[in-house]
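Service request form, structural biology core

Requester: graduate student, group of Dr. S.
Request type: structure prediction, single chain
Budget code: on file
Notes: please return the result as structure tokens.

Sequence provided:
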Amino acid sequence: MTEKMKTICVGRFLVDVPAQAEVSLSREMLDGFEIGTLEESEDAFLERVASREADIAGRGAAGMVEARDLRVPGMVGRALVHDVSRGYLMKGGRRVDMESVSVEVHGHKGGLSVSLSAKSTQASSVGEAEALLARLELRAEDDIPRVPGFCIGSAIFVEPLPPHRTEHIVMHVGLPAHPDLGMAFASLPGGGGDAGLLARTADIDAQAGPDEMLRVSRLRTGARTINALEGEEVLERVREMNFATTFGFMWEVRGVDNDPLRPFLSFELQAGIGERPGARPADSSLHEDAVLGLWNAISSSIRLRPNDPPPAPAPPEPEGPKLGAAATAGEVCPQSGWWQCREGGPGIDVHGGQVQYIRKGERMPQALLLPRQTLWQKLRGIQPSMESPRLTSWTLVDKRLRPRTPAAVALAQPGVPAAGFSAAGVPAAGVPVEPLVEAPVGIHVRTGETCPASGWWRCEEAHALDGTRWFARGSLLPPATFQVPAGLFGKSAGPDVIQRRSIWQLMRHVEAADVALAPHRAAEGPAAGMPGVQLPDPHAHRGSP
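Core staff response, request fulfilled:
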């Protein structure tokens, strides 16, 4: 049931539930107004509201007090004030008369009708309800809003909302294949002096008899913090009087008084509910392990939806010159990349080559021409040179950000054990291998050990030429390659490179099918033709492994 989940936006929170779950919302309230929604056409909405208005007006003088059109841009509707209630109270020995009314504000927008209603309130609360409706935006039920606000079924009240203290909403979750199981997640005003879940449970235990306590088994009890929400949890298995086995799980957060972002939260699961109200408990259709797995999967996903305004999009960077752009010697280079000059030709070379890497901000050079040497000049070691009388013209042919360098040395290659893996990390046909165990990102493996997962591995030796390389699952991790420092006369006393054992760290899982030429990259080094240059850290945009 938990292999595929869907995310539900409930008030200011997100909860993941099984994809096949049936979800409904109730007790939707905002700032004392009960919220009702209905998908219908505008004509059906107007007819229904007109009928409601006529019904109230038919009660006579005690019925309708005021009826007017809604004052919300982009929304049609009516505001109704009705049913005056009068009374008094004694304050300081004096009688204080009081009057309250009922308010209904009905609006329609984009095929959704929304009603805000309150009883025993003041007529001025019509303006408060209209201010809330002015912040209403429609959304699909499976759409997770990117803006802060309070989610209801097919809409969201977007911040900034008028000042308010209370928000109510309850989500009910059922599984069609398990009608005896029900779940509910509630977000209500927090604070108050009521005892917490653990204290209430202790009081119930103190009042329970020995027989009742023998039928209750505590599976888990104590404090539990979920995604920075500090709460308390009690999980029970109960052997009912009719010998049915049921489960009752609960998690609560007490919340803070008058803080909509820190409300009272409650998540409950009941398994073994009877077929109809008042019926005897039934055996849970899910085994204990399955109930615990379902509870852990859903409860662990409860989190506060980000309530900070989304960051403003960064201004687009001006596009640099396109390939084919031209620049003349002496001008400032407008784009780092490879530039080709028109100088040179048969028998005449260009110092540094006809194609040169020039960085943005540098001065475009004047090409130095190198005519072919005569035999006498070769014997004397003389290279003639000259400059063209005209300024050299350069054309941008490649916008690569770093120059390519030829492969100076060959890196050590990974070995393939006789157990039977191909170079792409695929077991050979008919060869028994151990089942695949997912290697976590960040794992360290030594030279000579079997690579547990195909992907990008970083050499932990800071001065190694290997950088980050792709290895296939099943191959033997190679030693690291090091450049030997130059000695006297610019040459090393021994070989130019040495290889020694190292430690490799898994940076990212990538199968051979998911990376172009992965086996060739493993053979050529971090990048084709660039064995001494490390690839960008694959976790630079994800955070450390």
